[in-house]
Design goal:
By secondary structure, this protein is mainly α. Among the domains are: about 60 residues, no CATH class; about 60 residues, no CATH class. Helices cover about 60% and strands about 10% of the residues. Strands 3-5-4 form a three-stranded antiparallel sheet. α1 crosses α2 and α4 packs across α5. The chain is rod-shaped, with a radius of gyration of 48 Å. It starts with 11 loop residues before the first strand and ends in a 9-residue tail after the last helix.
């Protein structure tokens, strides 16, 4: 066994068997590892060695025919999972960028609305206030329609000179676009302005 490079207590173990007293020497037996048994059977130059070699070659072929497709399948699953993780990471990145863009757009829209309101000095006036100041009566339906179409805020106010329910106060832009009335020019500081 030593001539093939086998190592005691690694490839095989020595087992001593004692015999009854007076009946010869004890026996020495060996317990082989599976790998060593395979190797010994494969190096034999006889029919049994040939059978052992064929047996192990067939076992290896069967193993490869079963394991290689399974490994390929597992590799494909693993690669698909990696692609999915990359796609999820990219989706997260796109969602983050989209949220940033949406926030910027909302800020821009808000800034535009504020600019519009600043252009008209945040001025609002009721139909009766304008009529009292100019002396012309105006229809509030055009003001309502224009304000709704352009997403302008119509304020609800309770006028100082009325004890009745709150009435609509329309933005300066609606007055300017519907009737050509510029609240900045028509009114001085005595009108109700809202911010």
């Amino acid at each position: 066994m030593l001539e093939y490079g086998f190592i005691e207590n690694v490839d095989y173990c020595v087992i001593s068997q004692k015999r009854e007293i007076g009946i010869g020497k004890g026996l020495t037996d060996h317990q082989l590892t599976l790998d060593m048994a395979k190797e010994i059977s494969m190096i034999q130059r006889n029919e049994k060695g040939r059978q052992a070699r064929k047996y192990f070659i067939n076992i290896e072929k069967e193993y490869k025919s079963e394991i290689i497709p399974r490994l390929k399948e597992e590799k494909e699953i693993f690669e698909a999972e990696i692609k999915l993780l990359k796609a999820e990471k990219e989706l997260f990145k796109v969602e983050k960028e989209l949220n940033i863009l949406l926030n910027k757009k909302q800020i821009r829209i808000k800034d535009e609305k504020i600019k519009k309101l600043k252009d008209y000095n945040f001025k609002y006036a009721t139909v009766s206030q304008v009529a009292d100041k100019i002396g012309i009566s105006y229809n509030h339906d055009k003001l309502i329609k224009y304000s709704k179409v352009n997403n302008l805020i119509i304020m609800r106010v309770k006028p100082n000179n009325y004890d009745s329910m709150p009435i609509n106060s329309y933005p300066g832009e609606a007055w300017l676009k519907c009737y050509g009335v510029d609240l900045k020019e028509v009114y001085s500081e005595d009108i109700n302005f809202f911010e």
